[in-house]
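User: quick one, sequence for these tokens?
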């Protein structure tokens, strides 16, 4: 009997890529993982004890553990489910998520401007305040982006996750967020095109993506800053870390701006685990959020318990959060620049 996934384990589904997929001499290297989104779709069906689920052009037969090509039922490949202890099996953070170079921009009026023009543009253009309309706009937008990127299967899988959300008829987003179990956060934590496309659009202020990516950006930002009945446990207070590869010119920019307020335009993934954050890059951001008791919107959220990658110990900072650059120093022992930021002031 298959072992059950726990909060510290993840279920990973794989398919056999061997030229002779039914061979009894299949090696471990022949097993290829489905994408995070596809694996989640299969796992959801498995947990519901469904006999099958359709993933793109394939039927996933959960009774006989076979992947069947829809256009030719004779083309079949074995599939398998494995449980991975994420703390033991995966020891590094995802590079593009946690180590993308961070370029600071100046708030329009120094330290008083929080937030994102990109998200605000969508918010002001959308005139339906109910949660159902906003979530449907997010799901539709993700599918549209998936079509552009030829990632339709993953896009439809993530849209389906959002559409599983349940709310009362006509319920406003702020009321829904106050009481909800934010399962939609898992969608953002999956390894997919979504978080990459969202943050690229936010960083580049690509207003052509407002209609498609704006809704989910808004939902995510709103929840981090405003929504949840778990008030005391949700807002993170402490120190978090983010590794990065910064150019010398970018590091010099941080040096010249010590004492000033700046912000990052995209959502920023940080980790509570310094050792993991130090594994890549020439720069470590050390971000202090210990004393932000009176600035509740200027903080991050510990999303690790909702994450597909619990081991990352992720604290997510909202888009456009301002920070003060406290100090920049070079550590000879680590051969890294340490950049100290403060979001508590």
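Assistant:
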């Amino acid at each position: 009997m298959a072992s059950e996934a726990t909060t510290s384990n993840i279920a990973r589904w794989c398919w056999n890529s061997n030229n002779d997929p039914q061979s009894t001499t299949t090696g471990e290297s022949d097993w290829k993982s489905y994408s995070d989104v596809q694996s989640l779709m299969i796992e959801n069906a498995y947990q519901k004890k469904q006999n099958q689920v359709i993933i793109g052009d394939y039927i996933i037969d959960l009774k006989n553990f076979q992947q069947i090509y829809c256009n030719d039922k004779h083309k079949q490949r074995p599939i398998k489910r494995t449980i991975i202890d994420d703390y033991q099996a995966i020891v590094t953070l995802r590079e593009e998520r946690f180590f993308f170079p961070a370029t600071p921009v100046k708030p329009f009026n120094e330290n008083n401007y929080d937030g994102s023009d990109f998200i605000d543009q969508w918010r002001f253009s959308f005139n339906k305040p109910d949660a159902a309309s906003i979530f449907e706009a997010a799901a539709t937008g993700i599918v549209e982006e998936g079509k552009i990127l030829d990632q339709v299967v993953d896009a439809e899988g993530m849209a389906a996750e959002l559409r599983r959300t349940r709310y009362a008829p006509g319920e406003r987003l702020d009321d829904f967020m106050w009481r909800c179990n934010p399962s939609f956060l898992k969608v953002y934590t999956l390894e997919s095109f979504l978080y990459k496309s969202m943050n690229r659009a936010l960083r580049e202020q690509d207003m052509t993506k407002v209609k498609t990516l704006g809704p989910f950006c808004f939902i995510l930002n709103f929840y981090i800053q405003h929504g949840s009945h778990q008030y005391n446990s949700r807002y993170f207070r402490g120190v978090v870390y983010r590794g990065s590869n910064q150019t010398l010119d970018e590091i010099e920019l941080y040096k010249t701006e010590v004492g000033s307020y700046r912000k990052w335009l995209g959502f920023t993934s940080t980790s509570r685990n310094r050792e993991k954050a130090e594994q890549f890059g020439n720069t470590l951001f050390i971000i202090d959020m210990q004393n932000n008791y009176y600035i509740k919107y200027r903080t991050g959220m510990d999303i690790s318990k909702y994450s597909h990658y619990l081991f990352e110990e992720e604290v997510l900072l909202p888009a456009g959060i301002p920070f003060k650059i406290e100090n920049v120093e070079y550590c000879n022992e680590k051969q890294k620049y340490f950049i100290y930021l403060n979001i508590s002031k």
